[in-house]
Amino acid sequence: DAKTTQPNSMESNEEEPVHLPCNHSTISGTDYIHWYRQLPSQGPEYVIHGLTSNVNNRMASLAIAEDRKSSTLILHRATLRDAAVYYCILRYSSASKIIFGSGTRLSIRP
Amino acid sequence: GAVVSQHPSRVICKSGTSVKIECRSLDFQATTMFWYRQFPKKSLMLMATSNEGSKATYEQGVEKDKFLINHASLTLSTLTVTSAHPEDSSFYICSASEAGGNTEAFFGQGTRLTVV
């Protein structure tokens, strides 16, 4: 399984944008880039996913590098409820395993 | 969006007893479901892949006789922790995706198992 690398932790201020980076230099052409987040004592929650083009949804934006070896999850205006562990994962199909790395623990300062 | 429901959310059991955790996909059919366990401050560790109508595929190091998985229908998978011991205490999470191409995965809310 292709691996992803993320910073262990990041901090941001409330109401400011947050850019969470992810490196996936061994990504294959058929791997989708998925992002999930996990709040304390809950199961992970889907955030966004994409293949090549940048993606936007109500929760976040996903910026994918042209060579696809890295991506950035963008929270446009962080709130305290966005404090969570964010996982960047590669997946080639809905039947393929989801292997979690260590993720990025995001803290939001009021 | 699609919902995966996991039950119970918390369970306390005595050493030596067995505990069953259910995972249901509420509004879609899940050919494949995944089971994870998570220790405090750690990431999710994949235990096994549950396939409807066939045997589960276990990850290396996971005892299949201890963690029994049954996926009898397209909407239900169960994980039974047999002869539980305190070291089995953990947060167990299931996941499922809709079939047909690349889609997002949905996760249950997790089950906190405490073995005393």
Radius of gyration of chain A: 13 Å
Query: Total helix count of chain B?
Result: 0
User: Which structural class should the secondary elements of chain B be placed in?
Assistant: mainly beta
Mean pLDDT metric of chain B: 92
Q: What is the radius of gyration of chain B computed over CA atoms, rounded to a whole number of angstroms? A: 13 Å
* Number of alpha- plus pi-helical segments of chain A: 0
Major sheet summary line of chain A? 5 strands, mixed
Could you walk me through the main structural features you see in this protein, from its secondary elements to its overall organization?
The complex is a heterodimer of chains A (110) and B (116). Chain A is an all-beta fold and 110 residues long. In chain A, 0% of the residues lie in helices and 45% in strands. Chain A has strands at 9-13, 18-23, 32-38, 45-50, 55-56, 61-64, 70-75, 84-91, 104-109. Chain A has a 5-stranded mixed beta sheet with strand order 1-9-8-3-4, with no helix packed on it. In chain A, strands 2-7-6-5 form a 4-stranded antiparallel beta sheet, with no helix packed on it. The radius of gyration of chain A is 13 Å and the shape is globular. In chain A, 35% of the residues are buried. The mean pLDDT of chain A is 94. By secondary structure, chain B is mainly β. Chain B is built from no helices and 11 strands. In chain B, strands 2, 4, 5, 6, 9, 10 and 11 form a 7-stranded mixed beta sheet that branches. In chain B, strands 1-3-8-7 form a 4-stranded antiparallel beta sheet, with no helix packed on it. At the A-B interface, strand 3, strand 4 and strand 8 of A face strand 4, strand 5, strand 9 and strand 10 of B.
